Structures are given as structure tokens and as C-alpha cells.
Amino acid sequence: MLDVVSALEYIEQQGTAVELAIARYAAATMTKHDALKVLEPFQFSDGGWKNPILQTHDVTLLNSVRVLQWLHWLHADQSALATRTAKFFAERQQPHGLWDVDTYDHTFDPRWKVGAEHLHFALNVAIARVLVESGQDVEVYIGRALNQLVELWRKNYEHSPTCPPLCITYNLLTTLSLVGQGDDRKINLACQHQLLDQLKQPLDSLDLLGITHATLSGGISTSRLFQMTQHKVLDGQMRDGSWQSQYGTPYHTLATMEALVLMRWSGLL
Question: Is residue 208 part of a domain?
């Protein structure tokens, strides 16, 4: 049975103020207004974000897309913070529809530690997914971005003997499902087969949470995957209330926060 009190206590003792605020909102012990007040100081005037967990001063696309997702989890898609973030992405979108990789610091989220050949695709498919998921895609040329991503997937991965990183697979599957392009059967099936194969072996809690959040957003076309992964997440809580990550101790609180958010969004909190 889910132990919310212990999870919150763990984050309070081990985590950051931002992680605790998002977790408390998920557990209905903090208002959205108060949670946004904790996040707000980390946004710069151009709409971009520095890393709220590591509190670095670099404003990057990676930092900003992660915080935009957190704003979505806080049901703050219509907030001024989210609107400014969307404009930050709009101003940096290239004419062909994608975004150039800037400072790439995966220490914010170890799921982003991918090979150099995957960086461009991984960042762009994450941006596209979160913009669509949060309803902020109206601020950018999302159609151009999606067309480019589909072409890049076909070029780089369709006939490749190796699978793309997990974060690419679940973000692309969910993005195409959200915009009604889940009927691109070849890509859809390829992504689902890869995820099903990965679920046959043990996955780190953060990777599992990444898949589960993405497939929850994907709706009916990804509901089977969501049901499979949600059960695995529920079984992963430790006695101290946390969800542990093999990526290292600093990420236990991130995993615990994301687990509580997942429970809120799936109706278990």
C-alpha cells in the first residue's frame, strides 16, 4: 500500500525545496499557488530556467523543458510561468522546426545521459512532447518539428540494428499519440515493441517512471503500457517511503517526487 506520509518525510529530509513543493502539491498538502512561488525564483526574464535542483546559473533548453513538465504536473499550464517558458522555446526554434542543442547537462536528469549521436533527437522529441502535453504547442511551429522528428527517426533508427535510448522511444510514442499521429503504424509499433522488450528486464525506477508518465499522457493508444508500468512503480516503494534509483543517491528524491505525481495524475491520490 502506498505510504504518502513516509514519502513526503523522505523528500523533506533528503531533497530540495522544489522537489518537496511538487510532491506536497501531488499529495494535496500544498496549494498550486504556494508551489509555484517556490519555483518562480529559478526563471529568468527571457522565460528560460536554471536548474532548480542543482541551482546552477546556466539557462538551458534541457532545464527549461523539465521545468515546463513540472508546471504541467502542477496544473499550471495557463500560468504566466508556463507562457513565458513557451515563448522561450518559440524564440529559439529554428526555421526547419527543431531546436539546436545548447549546454547539455544531464546531471539534472540522468535519463538524458545518451550518446552524442542521440543528443539532438533526444532533446527535440522531449521539447515537442512537453509543449504538446501542456497545450503550449500553439506558441511554436509544432507541425514542422514533428515532421522533422519523424524523418529523423526513419533515417537514424528505422533500419538500425540498435534501439534508440529509452527517453527517445517513449517521448516519440507519446507525442505522436497526443497529436493524433499515432496511426503512423510502423513508428508506433516499433516504439511499443522496444518498450515491451525493455519491460521484460529490470529497469531503474527513474526509467520506469519516465515510461509510465509518458504512456499515461498518451491516452488509449498507450494504455496497455501504462497499466503494465504503473503496477511496477507501485511495487517499488521502499520501507523508508522512497523510490530508489541506481543512478545514485541524489536521484532518490527525484524518483520519489515523480512517483507521487504519478499517483496524483492516475487518480490514486
Answer: yes
pTM beyond 0.90: yes
Whether the per-residue pLDDT at 56 is higher than 70: the answer is no
- Inside any domain, residue 268: no
35 domain-assigned:
no
How confident is the model over 181-225, as pLDDT tens digits?
655 778 888 999 999 999 999 999 999 999 999 999 988 878 989
Angle, alpha carbons 184-185-188 (nearest 5°)? 85
Number of domains comprising the chain: 1
CATH number of the domain at 114, please.
Answer: 1.50.10.20
- Residue 29: inside a domain, yes or no? no
pLDDT value at 106 more than 90? no
Domain range holding 202? 45-236
51-60, 152-161, 166-175, 212-221: which has the minimum mean pLDDT? Answer: 51-60
What DSSP letter does each residue of the chain carry, written as one string? Answer: ---HHHHHHHHHHHS-HHHHHHHHHHTTSS-HHHHHHHHGGGB-TTS-B--TTT--S--BHHHHHHHHHHHHHTT-TTSHHHHHHHHHHHHH--TTS--------GGG-GGG---GGGHHHHHHHHHHHHHHHTT-GGGTTHHHHHHHHHHHHHHHTTT-SSPPPHHHHHHHHHHHHHTT-TT-HHHHHHHHHHHHHHTTS---HHHHHHHHHHHHHTGGGGHHHHHHHHHHHHTT--TTS----TT-GGGHHHHHHHHHHHHHHTT--
Which pLDDT value is given to residue 173?
A: 92
